[in-house]
Amino acid sequence: MTPHHEPSLGTVLREWGRIGCIGFGGPPTHIALLRKLCVQRREWLSDQEFEDAIAACNLLPGPASTQLAIFTAWRVRGRAGALVGGAAFIVPGLIVILALAALFLTGSPPAWVRGAGAGAGAAVAAVAVHAGVGLIPAGWRRAASTGRVRWALYVLAGVVSAALLGPWLVLVLLGCGAVELTVNRARRGESSAALFAVPAQSWAAAVAGAGVFASVAWVALKVGMLSYGGGFVIIPLMQDDAVNTYHWMSAGEFLNAVALGQVTPGPVVQTVAVVGYAAAGLTGGILASLVAFAPSFVFILFGAKHFNRLRGNPNVRAFLDGAGPAAVGAILGSAIPLALSLTQGWQYAVLAGAGVLLFVLRRGVVTTILAAAAAGTGLALAGVLLPS
Length: 388
Fold this sequence. Notes:
mainly alpha; 76% helix; globular; Chromate_transpt
């Protein structure tokens, strides 16, 4: 179904670009802004159509709010609208985050800049826990029909794997999905085939040999293809690649990258642009963003018309009933390596303060990270030891 009054591509560029500029706060903000635009203000979609769009995008790997922006643009203006609207949603945040990456990662920034980065990075582990906790109630309610014991075990598996397995986390997500699919099909009396989509590490080694840009593209592709449940799911894998495998950045710089992804508008997955910038400058940052978001465009442009059938497929639904809670657990578990990356005692105090702001005072993520950055700046000016 197309809108009664199809908007021009100029309108799509303006409206989706506006959301890309003011969309601070991650997926909840993006969903609210898209709903206000498409359902309430312009009436391009009904409430039910918008809810269906959210559900369809949550079935796909990759950044869900970005896919929602592309999908809603597709619904109101077809493939051309999807390309224009998706780009307008992504580009403002990309420009801002690359400018900040240049400030934080180039040369020897002044102490106050390093302090701001160290303070903001210290808060990231609390933000990860906050993101995961926010997903638990809805998942727990859905688990009433699929088995809450298994749901809890899937969450636990995600926590442990994010804390310990690094790049092999995705195998646990897929494994939990395969287990739930097997249980579901057994209940229906069907035979079940194994689900395997193993990301061979040898691929990464081969790609690494082809040069830094190929390595950046490989890391970004994994980010775009494997981030079920939100950007934090892919943090352990991205951290392992950027810090341990390719040595593009230190653990502290990676924390800065995640913090920048939280305080800039647009999708949180823009963090990968900072990783690309650290590896190969501006060209690497742009390449990483292009590759990371390419799967989302491909899914929508070529698969959107099949979304209703996908949502109704019991096998797809069963797989996600296993992979989904594991992804929630992975978001929670990502806080462990992030916290272990801190090197100064005062950063743990900032982390505790961020937890108070988020969970006790119920401040927003952007406010919390900016407050942590301000604390880091003040402490740097006071002469505390900064991470190397």
